[in-house]
Each structure stands twice: as C-alpha cells, then as structure tokens.
Input
Amino acid sequence: MKIPPPRPRPALRSRPAPVGDARLPSSARVRLRRVGALLLVGALTASVGACALKVGEGSSVVLPQASAAEASRDAMARAATLIGSTAQVVATTSTDQAVVPTSASIQEEARQQVEALGGVWEPWATPVPTTYPTATPVATAAPDATVGDLVTALSSGVATARGVLETAEPAQAQLAASLVVSWSTRLEELSPGSVAPAPRDAATMTEPLGADLLLAYDSARYAMEEVAARSAGADRERAQADGAVADQVVRASVALGGTDSRLAAYAAPTASSDAQGLDATWALQVELGVMTAEISTVGSASGAARTSAVDAAVDAAGRAKAWGATLPALPAYQG
Output
C-alpha cells in the first residue's frame, strides 16, 4: 500500500509591520520613541503656557493691596487691639489696685472700638495655604506688660488716629476723632499731664461757628454761670473757668457774624446722673454737648479747622470728666 505524499501547506501572507513593532530595526524604534517624546513635551508646553504656569512650580501669588481708607482703618484697629490686650494684662496682673478698674474698662472699650472698626484687615477672604503671603502680624501685649506700657499704647493710638484725621473722608474722620477723644481721656487719667488742654482760642477765630456748635457753647456758658452762682469752693472755681472759655468763644463767633442760634435761657436737668448732684449733672451734660458738637464738625472741616475741632472736643471731654462724666467707648460717634 502506497502512502500518499504530504499535502503542501499554503504560504502565509505577510502583513505590514505596525509602527513600533519589535520587528523594526532597533535604530528605527529609537527614532520613533524620540519623535513621540518630542510631541508629548510640545503638547505639555503648549497647555502649560496657556495658563501661565511653570512646570514644577506653584502659581505666583501677590498680597492684595488695601486701599488708603482701608489701610487707615486697619492702623486704628491694630492700635485698638494693642491697647485692649495691654489693658487686659494690666487688669489681671497689676498689684496697683487703683489702676485695675480703669484698665478693665479700657479693655472693654477697646473691644468695642475694634468691633466698630471692623477688625484688623484680612488680605484673603478665606483661609489660604501657608505659602501665601500674609499681612503683618498684629502686635499684642507682652505677658509682663505694665501701666507704663498701657500709657505708651494709648499715646501711640492717639498719634495714629490723629494721623488718619489729616486725609480721611468725613465718616472715617469722625470715627478717628472719637478715638482721639477716648484714648486721650484715658491717657490723661492714667498719666496726668500727658494731654495738654487746647480749647478753642477765641483770639484766633477767623470764621463764626456753625449754628449747632454755637448753640452748644452758649448752652455751656449759661449753665456754668448758673452753677457758679449756686456753688462754692472748687466747684465754683471750676464752673467760672469753664464758663469763661465758653463765653469767649460765643462772643468771638457772634462778632464774626453767621447764624445767631442762641436762646434766651436753657433748661436745667430735672434729675441727677448717678451720684452727681443737679449742678454737676448740668455741668457735665453741657460739656458733653460741646464735645459732641465739635466731633460733628470734623467731617465738614479740613486742615487746621479739623485739628482745632478735635482739640476742642478733647478739652470738652476733659472738662466733662472733671465734673464726673463717664465717656462711652466711642464718644459722639454714630456708626
């Protein structure tokens, strides 16, 4: 029996080798890989360039710049923060019991002042990574702060607020004036003689007072004359001195013309404030009235007139304090 010969197998059809196939020569494969790498780098460079970022680096962040008004407000808020923290240390660590109540009051006033100022300026609306630039840290009191440090903080705060007054808009100027009055009064209380009295000088007045301010001074003149007539000793001397200052300002204003808003008489209070008698209550009320009227004129004044109004407000606040008045954290300020 014959065995048939094996049938021949059909020839395999060749297929074109795909790019990158192992059957390509090694030199061709290397060239293809280099081309692919160059294309990938080019694509990355184009996409990164479109968003202005450098490969391997974070975005370049610049600290936002506060406006002039915001910078002024921030400066006063920082001053109030330092005053408050220093007063807190003194109130809790001082062995001088005479200054503890005053320091505690200053601490609470500073808290209200910081709140009215809107707090210290924050450059970012929300918490940001630690690599972002931030504003200068807020200065606070040392653990061993003394009354001397509190006096220094108050003095520095007065200087800061007075600096804001020079260029501030009306609303901010009145707030700054209120802080000058508050901090100056506390400064004088802790360190007598630190604040030089500067009432309006009738001899240097070149313009008449506004109607409200003239009314406030004339009311003070009338009240002090009444109080002096019914008092004796130190109270009479104080009333005569305060009345003389008011009278001179009124006379100078009337001589310069303007609206004569004076009344023939002014009603005395019918009830005393706290432990003060009726005469002392009347005296402190009219001096607070002068202080309020002076602060109110700060917004519409400018230059030397603004400074004169603030000085007169500080002087009137000191006179009211001498009659037993207690000033609020923000005297005469309506926020």
